TrEMBL record:
UniProt-listed Enzyme Commission number(s): 3.2.1.14
Molecular-function GO term, any one: endochitinase activity
Domain GH18: 45-352
GO CC aspect terms: extracellular region
Keywords assigned by UniProt, alphabetized: Carbohydrate metabolism, Chitin degradation, Chitin-binding, Glycosidase, Hydrolase, Polysaccharide degradation, Signal
Transmembrane feature ranges: none
Higher taxonomy: Bacteria, Bacillati, Actinomycetota, Actinomycetes, Kitasatosporales
InterPro entries in alphabetical order: CBM5/12, CBM_sf_5/12, GH, GH18_Chitinase, Glyco_hydro18_cat, TAT_signal
Lineage: superkingdom: Bacteria
PANTHER family: BIFUNCTIONAL CHITINASE/LYSOZYME-RELATED, GH18 DOMAIN-CONTAINING PROTEIN-RELATED
Protein's UniProt name: chitinase
Amino acid sequence: MRRRVRSLRSALTAAVTAVAALGLGAVAVAPAQAAAEAATPLPARVFAPYFESWTGESPAALSAQSGAKHLTMAFLQTATKGSCTAYWNGDTGLPIAQSSFGADIATMRSRGGDVIPSFGGYTADTTGTEIADSCTDVNQIAAVYEKVITTYDVTRLDMDIEVDSLDNTAGIDRRNKAIKLVQDWAAANGRQIQISYTLPTTTHGLAASGLAVLKNAVTNGAKVDVVNMMTFDYYDNAAHDMAADTKTAAQGLYDQLAKLYPTKTAAQLWGMVGIIEMIGVDDFGPAETFTLANARTVYDWAVSKGINTLSFWALQRDNGSCAGGAAADGCSGIAQNTWDFSHIFAPFTSGTTAPADDFSVTTSPAAATVTAGGSTSATVNTAVTSGTAQTVNLTVSGLPAGVTATVSPASVTAGGSATLTVNTTAATVSGTYQIVVNAASPSAGHAAVLSLTVTGGATQCTAAPWASSQVYTGGQQVSHKGHTWKAKWWTLGEEPGTTGEWGVWQDLGAC
């Protein structure tokens, strides 16, 4: 499963014993790898919601649409247990390379934002594919962390440790030893790097298992800059005021950190606290619903306390398309406008200011239907929202196979409009696609979406039929019962269509 759910067992597990530190040497790094342009540190306060990177969507486009300039990218893990090579979501088609999200990250940086790559997550932590659980060589684990840092020039890595990974004392020790090696390497090469731990919590602070992770970090000399608490999925069969529980959980964490780091001031301790909400209905159900009113309360409290990070699971859930429903990857389960939670939390980020010269972009109509082989068009409208009008460059992304698009003119002065023309072929597969119009000026970037429904298109299945005896890894596609399915991670014997929305198979639609 990809969701950030955890079991009651993991929340209540007993403290694990910290393993004694081993004397390991520094990781050897080639000079070319170590040297890079100085990355810009994250703001002292940052709003960085999670981006579900397995969906095929553009983080830069959703960042622009939502106003969330910084994103936490979920997740990095190995493709198979025992491997020391990490991929995005364990998908061998998404290696740690510029070809995987590099252009998006550069675009976000040009708009004053950045990303925080996150290792682990529920799936990795329950399948043995979290890098420190999977790989038994501390130096190779450290090398993977360094590769992410140098490939994307980031200044923070997140470690999402939950469920089974909380019980893996050897993995906990390897992870913290690798972090210490990376921190020594960064210091020697003039790099700034922060480490955050994302851990499950009770309503009064970390469970013993999560606290043991931090104690082991202290033992190994690994600096932890931020502790992100997952303030949801309590699974205690009680009704919850999720904002009130966030406050008591954070106070509990503060008290725990004060004992671990007795020389830190109150401001420094609160500056180590991060909060991750699950917006709307969480995995437990309606009794644990984080509302928009909760979000406003938590925002005011977070600012007053001076915590470091405010986040939620997940950006793609920030809409009301399934109001009254259960927790889902793509919607919140409550009545809301798209990006309501993002707009409440976005001002939390410090060190960034709204562009003096800014604009908006929309498509009219916002949705269109076309028969495969035909074409349709929409007007791209821009408007000045502050300052003076600047030149806005327009590009298109999110095009499926068999669909092409042009924008004419390709640039306008803010306040002007252009025409988006979308052409399909007879071979275009029927379905609904989100065509993204990216708009960028010298000082700002935004995006608009045309929801394109293609009818009467191709229905033949081109992927190989699913076989129960075959091992599939993340990214591989199969056909089964008239649909195309994509594996989210390693699987064997799990039939597409039977694993549910949280399962290994993602339904790509009829074929």
